[in-house]
Amino acid sequence: METKEINSVHVEQYDASPPNDYLGKDEESPSSLSPTQDWTPEEERKLVWKIDLRVFPMLCVVFGLSLLDRTNISAAYIAGLAVDLELAVGSRYSVALLVFFIGYFLFELPSNYIIRRIGARWWLSFLIVAWGLMVLAMGFIHHWKILVVLRAFLGIFEAGLFPGSIYIIGCWYKQFETGRRISLFYMASLFSSGFGPIFAYVLSLIRVGGPGSMYRSGWRWIFIIEGIATVFAGLVAPFFLVEFPERVKFLNPRQKHIALERVKVDKLGKEVVHPTVKEMLVMLADWKIALYCIQYFICASSVYSLAYFTPIILRQGMGFSYAKAQLLQSPPYVFTIIMSLTMAYISDKIKMRWPILCSQAATGIVGLLIILYVKAPAVRYVGLFLAIFGCQANIPATLAYGNNQTGRNEKKGVVAAAMISSGALGGIAGSTIFRSQDAPLYMPGTWSTISMLMLYIIITISMSMHFKRQNRLADEAQAEGRQYILEKTPGFRYAP
């Protein structure tokens, strides 16, 4: 491997040319295929299946743990944490929620700058162990201020996982392969949100020691057991996490060549580009990234508000007991997983994003209106199904949307980190717009979420019409023999 400078961009050059040894006598030779593709469709299908089996399992596990660890505070809250640490006083609970997102916002982009240089396996494993220790420590605290400090560090260490995972997936798959795969990654991890409350309820029943022992508080065991599980996952992660295509060792040279070339739509050949800090800032100046960030901000604020306050809404707003409030959180998430994967498959199949994004946002609006204005608890519970699906499904779908409008691989990491950083700001909004004094209907918070989802639909339709026009202009220019390059990437087309 040799390193060189190309227009001040750091580049590592790999010899990925396929050796003749990997072409059996019964296989097609490169000369019999397309001049830009020297592999068969069957080779590519087998390779993609092999990549799927290596990319997703561990990423789904650790991302599921991250969702569990950042939201288990809501389960602990109604299991006694609020009483023991006096979190119901003033805005203490909201502070403990929103402080997580400060570090989460600040460290996402730097993490995606680091991950390509250090490598995904070691960097992500370090982050997993570090945040697991923060969760574990929460099980031994006695003051709400210590909880706030640990939540702040939890946000710092969790910051790199989600954008890093989206960056990795974007580097392995083609434009219309990413939608259902990002949804699969996110929805498989969402099982933790669906079944986390049941697990938390079981853990909250643990009692150790005699009267007066702090270990008789069930909420402590939620943090202790889940923290231990995360630390263990971080220790074994280096053996199971996948690297970027140019770094992996589970592919032979022929497979690595196909994996690298199949996702390239630019003219950089065999080069893997590492942008400098200055170049990353130039990429961030793209106006489209700002709109992707607004889209993701809206999705994240909606999701976090529902995640943090659904238990409280079920408990106080709908009048269910503590046990029922925990158990009734799971069915809406199962429904969300099934519907989201179905919609992602349809989106990839029809090669269109905006109708799916807008219909899901509209479903979220309908669900929130039902929760807000219908009196019958059973019908309001149905509204919760629709609201959670409409908001959760657009998280991976919006990430796929931003990823698909980005031609260069080095820019995909910047786009993913920028979008998910804006999601941290959405988390701050989501943890504050549902105020305790607005219980049990939470009218201001609910209508704020509805208004943002309406804005999401407007932005998505407007951007997609712009992308369709740009594609048309590029196609017309190509037919006339003129140059009209999108995203500084010859041959690239948007995926509206």
TrEMBL record:
Domain of life per record: Eukaryota
UniProt cross-references to InterPro entries, sorted A to Z: MFS (IPR011701), MFS_dom (IPR020846), MFS_trans_sf (IPR036259)
Transmembrane regions: 55-79, 91-110, 122-142, 148-172, 184-206, 218-242, 289-310, 330-347, 354-374, 380-402, 414-434, 446-465
Keywords noted in UniProt: Membrane, Transmembrane, Transmembrane helix, Transport
Localization (cell): Membrane
Residue stretches making up the Major facilitator superfamily (MFS) profile domain: 55-472
Annotated region (Disordered), positions in chain: 1-39
Topology within the bilayer: Multi-pass membrane protein
Keyword Methyltransferase belongs to the record: no
PROSITE patterns xref list: MFS
Main location: membrane
Positions with biased composition (Polar residues): 30-39
Name by which UniProt lists this protein: Major facilitator superfamily (MFS) profile domain-containing protein
Organism: Lithohypha guttulata
